[in-house]
């Protein structure tokens, strides 16, 4: 399994990431033509082909578009699965509990197959009750009963989970502090929160892009940014671009330890967008962790 290296400070992360730069250069344009390479997929547990979607090599976006042709998980999803398995996801003893804040995805299906104690959910809107299941679908022919959870108001009991994971959720939540406090509340002592966000690895502080005003509308402080979302074809608004102060926010929420990690393992599909760049280290697949 590919190794994720964890760091508690920007300086330590940056030093380690820059040390990988020579390996990236030696590897060369691994993702050049024909835009696919053989490798080992941790989700499939075997040899596969990684294929880069899209037609513009100058805007490869390896994080979202480099997929295994067998399981079809992209880099971000495979990194999350790898992190979950390495942080208690391989436990089999009775009583282990975990939650992934998505359910109607390939990542959840693969994760649940490896971690049968893992529960999944989706955010279905402010008018739903956390912990209840509702008929829901992004396509009219694929309705299913889906558990609703909100990261700012989870239905799980105090100190009830060993693992909590969410992928590209937090940047869409205005009240980051409330979401992190709620995450800490539901985790047992020693429990782990794993999450991905678009992370500005060269920014000490986060950027607040907008905030709700007194009427409930969004006051834009930066040009509006929307990301793809299963609930809305127009996408979901992005409140934050996170920098390194996210680690302090995690600690302030009640976690005894907060870390950022990266993984560089091109033969396992963990690569950078542009190996020819002198700053490829900024493109390394990254993930964040809080330990309760």
UniProtKB/TrEMBL annotation:
* MF (Gene Ontology): methyltransferase activity
- Which keywords label this protein? Methyltransferase, Transferase
What Gene3D superfamilies is this protein classified in?
A: Vaccinia Virus protein VP39
Q: Name one Pfam family in it.
A: Methyltransf_11
- Keyword Transferase included in the entry's annotation: yes
Q: Name one GO biological process term.
A: methylation
Carries keyword Nucleotide-binding?
A: no
The protein's matches in SUPFAM superfamilies, at most eight in alphabetical order, are given as:
S-adenosyl-L-methionine-dependent methyltransferases
Check the record and name the InterPro entries matching this protein: Methyltransf_11, SAM-dependent_MTases_sf
On the tree of life, the source organism's domain of life is Bacteria
Report the leader peptide range: none
Where's the Methyltransferase type domain? Answer: 145-195
Protein name as annotated: Methyltransferase domain-containing protein
């Amino acid at each position: 399994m590919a190794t994720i290296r964890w760091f508690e400070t920007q300086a330590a992360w940056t030093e380690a990431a820059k040390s990988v730069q020579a390996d990236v250069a030696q590897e060369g344009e691994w993702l050049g033509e024909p835009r696919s390479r053989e490798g080992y997929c941790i989700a499939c547990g075997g040899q596969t082909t990684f294929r880069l979607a899209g037609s513009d090599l100058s805007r490869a976006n390896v994080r979202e578009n480099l997929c295994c042709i067998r399981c079809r998980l992209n880099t971000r999803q495979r990194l999350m699965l790898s992190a979950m398995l390495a942080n208690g996801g391989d436990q089999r003893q009775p009583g282990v509990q975990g939650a992934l804040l998505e359910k109607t995805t390939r990542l959840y299906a693969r994760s649940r197959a490896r971690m049968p104690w893992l529960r999944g959910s989706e955010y279905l809107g402010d008018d739903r009750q956390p912990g209840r299941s509702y008929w829901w679908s992004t396509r009219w022919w694929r309705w299913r009963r889906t558990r609703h959870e909100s990261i700012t108001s989870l239905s799980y009991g105090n100190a009830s989970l060993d693992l909590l994971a969410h992928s590209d959720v937090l940047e869409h939540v205005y009240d980051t502090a409330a979401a992190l406090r709620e995450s800490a509340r539901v985790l047992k002592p020693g429990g782990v929160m794993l999450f991905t966000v678009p992370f500005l690895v060269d920014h000490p502080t986060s950027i607040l892009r907008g905030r709700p005003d007194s009427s409930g509308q969004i006051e834009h402080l930066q040009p509006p940014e929307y990301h793809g979302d299963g609930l809305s074809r127009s996408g979901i608004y992005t409140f934050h671009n996170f920098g390194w102060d996210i680690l302090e926010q995690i600690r302030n929420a009640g976690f005894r330890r907060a870390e950022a990690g990266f993984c560089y393992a091109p033969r396992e599909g963990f690569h950078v967008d542009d190996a020819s760049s002198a700053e490829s280290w900024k493109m390394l697949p990254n993930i964040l962790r809080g330990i309760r």
